[in-house]
Amino acid sequence: MKWIYFFLGDPRKHSLEHRLFNTVSLVTGILNLAVALGVIRLENSLVLVALNFGSGILMFAMYYLSRVKSIYFSLYWPFHLTILFYLSAMWLYSGGSLGGNHYFLIPAFVIALFLIRNQNVYVVYSIYILLPVTLYVVEFFHKEWVTSYGTNSDLYLDAGSKFIFVQILIGILVFILRRNLNIERKKSETLLLNILPESVAVELKKEGRVIPRSYEFASVLFCDITGFTKNATKMNAEELVAELDTIFREFDRLCKEYRLEKIKTIGDSYMAVGGVPNVNRTNVVDSVLCGLAFQSYMAEQKEVHSLRGRDFWEVRLGIHLGPLVAGVVGTEKFVYDVWGDTVKTASRLESFGMACELNISFEVYEEVKLYFDCEPHGCVSMKGETDIPLYIVKGFLPEFADGLSSKVPNDLFKRLYESGALFTHNEEIE
């Protein structure tokens, strides 16, 4: 695959049109040089060899300019005028309509339409309609302008070989287009999956809309980077964004590892949910594990930065469990989002906490108290509602903690977690 990308272009860096131009110019150049060798035995072989060899060299030159210099968009008309001149000359010097050169106008026209960019499509249509009409008219009224074949064997050999070449060219063209269109489709699907969960993306593509759904047992994780505003004034914009991007990329990876769905980032805040859109009873533990992993990663990065004499940020986290509604809003730049008191409570738990703390609600505590060391920490006041008991997750319980760090699970916990033996909730989920 690497050698294909080397010659034709990488789909991640080059557009479909660019890769198609590279492919067609390279293949056409090779075919023209092959034809130059094949017509040596025919009459007027000098002219035919010169036409095929010259056009082949031009195609290789345009391939080089497109692949290396990336100026394929400026080569549209030179490319097609070279093809049209070559086919017109071959018509006159190679048997006219009997020689089968007009077959090549079909793939040439298809290529012209695929590569068209800012050019007027009506001009392209007019050229490809008027050229064969003109050539037929010239042949009809001035047969002496057309070089005939010396023998029938020459006619059959040349016309047959051209027909085979056209079939090969069309086959290659269809293969290239199909393959590149599949690549573009996969790129679009990957981009969509980076915006929406897979099941939601499938529903959106199939139905054109996403029906909002209620979830009764979902956990919401909020994470905020403390000290961000203070340190941001000491860094230029590029460094700031690069640092934040590195952190959030790792958070994205950890969310995937613990089966959480990233919802959004707002500035230096990060939000993810568990049990949405794929319902499960493990999402509370998953969320706490993910939160501890966030803390461990940030602690490691702070240590690395301190060795370099640089400040680094810390995180403040909040997790709540409860019902919520999830769906897609908007028609342009749409997002998958969640709503409900559970979301507001999780946000409040996060904002109430201190740096390096993982705050959880009583509902979360009841689900994870058998596995994690949780310390009561008073209550959180909610506007217009009763106060919510607050707990801080200090790490794993001793029987589940790694010997080096209480925030890292030991092998026993990993085995129980992966086997599902930790989870005793067997009630049916709606």
Task: Describe it.
- This protein is an alpha+beta fold and 430 residues long.
- It has two domains: 1-194, no CATH class; 210-419, Nucleotide cyclase, GGDEF domain (Alpha-Beta Plaits, 2-Layer Sandwich).
- Helices cover 55% and strands 16% of the residues.
- The protein has helices at 2-8, 16-38, 45-67, 76-93, 105-115, 121-141, 152-195, 198-207, 228-232, 237-257, 283-307, 341-352, 362-368, 411-419; strands at 213-226, 260-266, 269-274, 314-329, 335-339, 358-361, 372-380, 388-396.
- Strands 1, 2, 3, 4, 5, 6, 7 and 8 form an eight-stranded mixed β-sheet that branches.
- The model is unreliable at 425-430 (pLDDT under 50).
Structure at a glance:
With 430 residues, this protein is an alpha+beta fold. Helix content is 55%, strand content 16%.
Structural domain count: 2
Number of helices: 14
Rounded to the nearest angstrom, the radius of gyration is 33 Å
Helix content: 40-55%
- The CATH architecture of the largest domain would be 2-Layer Sandwich
Beta-strand level of the residues, as a percent range? 15-25%
Mean of pLDDT: 86
N- to C-terminal distance: 46 Å
Low-confidence stretches: 425-430
Number of strands: 8
Shape summary: elongated
In CATH terms, what is the fold-level topology of the largest domain?
A: Alpha-Beta Plaits
The CATH class of the largest domain is Alpha Beta
**Which structural class matches the secondary elements?**
alpha+beta
Say which CATH homologous superfamily of the largest domain is assigned. Answer: Nucleotide cyclase, GGDEF domain
Q: What is the succession of H and E elements?
A: HHHHHHHHEHHEEHEEHEHEEH
Largest pleated sheet: 8 strands, mixed
Main location: membrane
Protein name: adenylate cyclase
GO molecular function: adenylate cyclase activity; ATP binding; metal ion binding
InterPro entries: A/G_cyclase, Nucleotide_cyclase
